[in-house]
Amino acid sequence: MIRVLLVDDQPLIRSGFRALLDLEDDIEVVAEAADGLEGLALTRRFLPDIVLIDIQMPVVDGIEATRRIAADPALAQVHVVILTNYGLDEYVLDALRAGAAGFLVKDIVPDDFVHAVRVAARGDALLAPSITRKLINRYVSQPVPAVAGTRLDELTGREREAVSLVAHGLSNDQIALRMAISPLTAKTHINRAMTKLHARDRAQLVVMAYESGLVAPRDS
Question: What pLDDT is attached to residue 147?
Fold first, then answer.
């Protein structure tokens, strides 16, 4: 059973998402919160698999709530998915760095929304296609940091290749096919890379791949 916490200051939004998730046999909404501080308290109380949280909220916003969840060792298995009305904005990179597992735009169609919850529960990075494109464009407009590559020095060649393919949006099965290995081996390469880079999840791995210069935006 996938356990979900909804955190949004708009009751109508929460009700709509809850109605969709309550239809699924393998998903349970354990609680709802109207601001980030309440969301933090409920996260610690219920230990959900997924926290769906709005960026802009009163008391504590979604980015700060994400940062506190990611920093708490007791919540290491909690995956935070940011909900946004606007797609990529100035908060997206900050939230990814804070530990968000991905983003969903609130106008997502119902079937895709439910699928996204399941993807996030598996620990896979979750970025809406529109946000992924804009994220890449944002990196195109920024110079590569002078320290490019230094963060990936501890990775093996195969681990670097797997991280590169993650940054291009490939699933484990697709990475396995591209690298001519089994999906389990692909997952092992990715997990080892995450451990070495201290990445909380695949979303942070994607950010590191771009920031280190391993992946050039024009190649994505």
Answer: 45
Return the pLDDT at 148: 45
Task: Show Cβ contacts of residue 201 under 8 Å, excluding neighbours closer than 6 positions.
Answer: 79, 99, 101, 123, 125, 194
Q: DSSP string spanning 124-169?
A: --EE-HHHHHHHHHHHHTSPPPTTTTGGGTTS-HHHHHHHHHHHTT
Residue 219 pLDDT? 47
- pLDDT at residue 146, as a whole number: 44
| Cross-strand partners of 51 | 5, 80
Helix (H, G, I), strand (E, B), or coil: what is residue 180?
Answer: coil
Separation CA 81–CA 116 (nearest Å): 9
Beta bridge partners of 29: 4
- pLDDT above 50: residue 170: yes
- Rounded to whole angstroms, how far apart are CA atoms 151 and 157? 14
Phi (first) and psi of residue 101, to 5 degrees: -80, -15
pTM reported for the whole predicted model: 0.67
Write out pLDDT tens, residues 87-139: 555 676 677 778 888 778 788 888 888 888 888 887 766 655 455 555 555 55
User: Residue 101's closest CA among 111, 85, 86, 116?
Assistant: 116
Tell me how far apart the terminal alpha carbons of the chain are, to the nearest angstrom.
35
Q: Which two tokens mark 146? A: 């002078």
